[in-house]
Specification:
Distance between the termini: 74 Å
Order of helices and strands: HHEEEHEEEHEEEEEEHHH
Number of helices: 7
Strand order of the largest sheet: 1-2-3-5-4
Number of strands: 12
Strand content: 5-15%
Oligomer: single chain
Structural class: alpha+beta
């Protein structure tokens, strides 16, 4: 069962034709670099692919088995090599193993829903949008397309994480899971449509062919839309109307362009606009503060 080189590395139940969802494969336990580092996979978070060390000892480490037939390893090499030089790089500080089957070793951080303490007044909501668009714009500038952007592939660094992981930045949004990601020779505004992979975000109008850069921007819009819907459901608070309008602009009105898609902005244009809107919301908040001060004078 799953005896090939690449994941998933499933573990069968003894004497049964079934997968043990909590099993740890022997070849992962015996991986030379894990043994050298003293890392012992304890439980799967995605059976056969992603594991974590015991939650009873800090720091907790995430271990992902990489598929050598996909581009994830090469993409991480590029992103991690310059993570400290680019403040707009939203890759989780991680390490790639150098011996044995390639693994990604990364810190366990948190669901993006609790970034900024889980309560998002207007300026915090705009910061979340800005950080995600900024991260995707960097990927696109390097001709990297995520291809599966969704809430589950966004994480957050919290202030308490810095005690365990020195490279994690508090209140920072991180993009993970480049398993479906691709690198293209052509950049945004030039690259024509490609066949889209399976994804957690539903394709617009059931399309299977789309400009990959535009697909990423569409997914960013849908991801933010669902993230803030969840926020409103849990808190009964809404984000600023300007943010809602901006998200709708990212989603666009898909017309099924066979070449370069013009149904929504590029990530670079979206980044330029969100920078302006952040200043607008800051000014609006400042005016509200001044109005309250004047009322109480």
């Amino acid at each position: 069962m799953s005896t090939g080189l690449n994941p998933p590395w499933y573990v069968p139940f003894p004497g049964r034709d079934a997968i043990d969802p909590g099993g740890i494969p022997d070849r992962l336990l015996c991986h030379p670099e894990l043994q050298e580092r003293g890392l012992v996979p304890f439980i799967p978070t995605k059976p056969g692919i992603v594991f974590r060390t015991t939650p009873f000892e800090e720091p907790i480490t995430i271990i992902k088995i990489l598929n050598t037939e996909r581009e994830e390893r090469e993409i991480y090499k590029r992103l991690l090599s310059e993570a400290n030089q680019r403040p707009n790089n939203h890759t989780v500080p991680s390490e790639l193993t150098q011996t044995g089957h390639p693994l990604l070793i990364m810190p366990q951080i948190h669901n993006v829903r609790i970034i900024h303490g889980g309560t998002w007044p207007p300026r915090k909501a705009m910061d979340i949008i800005f950080q995600l668009v900024e991260g995707v714009e960097l990927l696109h500038s390097l001709h990297i397309v995520h291809m599966d952007m969704c809430r589950m592939n966004l994480m957050a660094g919290l202030p308490q994480d810095t005690r365990l992981y020195k490279d994690i930045v508090p209140h920072r949004l991180y993009i993970i899971d480049f398993d479906s990601s691709r690198q293209f020779a052509l950049g945004p505004g030039v690259q024509p449509a490609v066949v889209l992979p399976e994804s957690q975000t539903k394709k617009p109008n059931g399309l299977q062919l789309l400009d990959p850069y535009s697909w990423d921007v569409y997914c960013v819009g849908r991801t933010l839309e669902r993230l803030f819907e969840q926020y409103t459901e849990q808190t009964n608070l809404r984000i600023p109307w300007v943010a809602e309008t901006y998200i709708k602009w990212l989603i666009g009105n898909e017309r099924g362009c066979p070449g370069v898609c013009r149904c929504r902005p590029t990530a670079r244009t979206a980044l330029r606009v969100i920078k302006v809107l952040v200043r607008v919301v800051d000014a609006m908040e400042c005016c509200r503060w001044m109005a309250r001060v004047i009322v109480h004078v």
